[in-house]
Every structure is written in structure tokens, then in C-alpha cells.
Amino acid sequence: MQVLNNIESLHHYLGRLPSNARVALVPTMGNLHAGHLSLVDKAKALADVVLVSIFVNPIQFAPGEDFDRYPRTEAEDIKKLTDAGVQAVFLPTVEVLYPDGIEGGTRVMASRPLAEMLCGASRPGHFDGVVTVVAKLFNLIQPDLAVFGEKDFQQLVIIRRMVADLNFPVEIISVPTVREPDGLAMSSRNSYLNAEERARAAMLYSCLRQVGEQVEQGARDMAALEASAEQRLRDSGFVPDYFRILDADTLAPLHDGSRRAVILAAAYLGHTRLIDNLVVSLPA
Length: 284
Ligand code: PAF
Prior knowledge:
37% of the residues lie in helices and 20% in strands. By secondary structure, the chain is of the alpha/beta class. The strands form 2 sheets. The chain has a 6-stranded parallel sheet with strand order 1-4-3-2-5-6, sandwiched between helices. The protein is globular and about 55 Å long.
């Protein structure tokens, strides 16, 4: 596997690929787990060349968030990607991607109000930072397709919207969330949980499933469902940030034409902020 640390080596590598090679990009922040490897598997099935990027992007973290302590496990990540049969990993430093520093540079503005609701309400500027770095990676690598996890559902909707709005010739592929045996969605941030928090963490997904069944069975008082789910989370020791039931295609409130609902939750367990979601079909 080629490890590419700068833009020159990236371009040299891409320039030597056959001109008809179909290239898939899997953008990550590293600390790879089975969820990331499922993105790699999907990319391998759809493309000739799989390139994974590993970059903890400072501009998507607000001051006081976990940028400094975000787990960085490059050696283990390279081993996992080599074993998974990935052809190349792009592993730039902050100076390589932001040579003029992270202040004052041009940013892509993620679609409003999408970027200011849900996670965007408690993490102002987060999605602008995400779409800026994704746009940079798309421009540098010019992949045919890019693969993202459905765990970050709002991010996925926002990236699809950016690709449509800015006419990026990149196909966006999504892959279902990979879960631990008790249902907890795999996430690098799960490593912040202590043993007692970890034992309780799967309650978030149980709550999503409970509400999902009610929605599938025709319950329509979304505000009541959301309020009682938040209360159940509080009773289990979480501090909910949001619990919402929305149209899965647009993240707008459900309407008569909605075909799928997405139930999205973010909640703190101690100092750790967990997010998860569940998509359900709506009865016709
Ligand atoms: O989902 C992530 O890991 C990041 O937000 C992404 C898409 C790699 C951009 O930094």
C-alpha cells in the first residue's frame, strides 16, 4: 500500500493510474474500526482503486472540543488498510492541507438551515469545516465516487447537497452503520466512555428502535414521541441534546409525501457526546 503524505506524492500516484481506472475515496479521520472497514469493502466492490484519507480536520472542531485528544492511531490504521487490500492512503499533516494556517482561509458554507440544526445547533461551524475539507479532498483526488457512513446521517445529507449544489462530478455512496453486539454504533469516540458508561450506551439505540417501531406502526404525534424518548434517555443517565423524527431525504419535518422517516439522536453520557440514527419506512 502506498502511504502518501503530501500533495506532490498524491498527484504522482494518481498520475500513474490507468486513465480508465475507477477511483473510490473513503474519507476518514483515522482510528479505524469495523465501520470504516465496511466503507472500504463497499469502495472495493465499486472501484478499481481505493484511496483512504486519514486527516483529523481542525476546522470542523470548535474551540474546547476534542481535536487535541481525538485518537490518532496511524500505525494501526496503516496495518488495517494494508490487510484490507487498500491501494493507497493519503495522510497529510495540517500544514499540507492548510499551508496558510486555519484562520482566514476560504471556506465552503454548508447548506442552511441543514447545517444549523441538530448537530449544527450545538456545534456551530462544524459542517462548514466538514464540507470544506471534503471539497478539498474531492479537488485534490478527483475520485469517481466517495463512500460515507450512515452513522453521520446529517453529514451525509449535507455532503450530498454540497455535491449537487457545487456540481462535483463525484457519486456519493452510503453504507449502513456497523454496530457492536449490544447495538451501540461503532465510533472512535466510544473509547472515551468508562466501563459504567459503556454498559449503558446501547440504550441510545434501543430508544431509537422503540420509537422506530411506533412510527412504523402509524404513530404520528412526533412531538410526543420525541419528548418521551428524551425522558427515557434522561432516566437512563443520558443528557439528551436532541431527539428528532424527520423526513429521511430532506431532514425537513415529516409531511404527507414522506416515504421514509429518520429518527436522529445525540446525547451525552458523562463528557462523551454520542450520536445515532435509524431510518424506517412509513406506511403508505
Ligand atoms: O466523518 C468523518 O470522519 C469526517 O467528518 C470526514 C468526512 C472525514 C471529514 O473530515
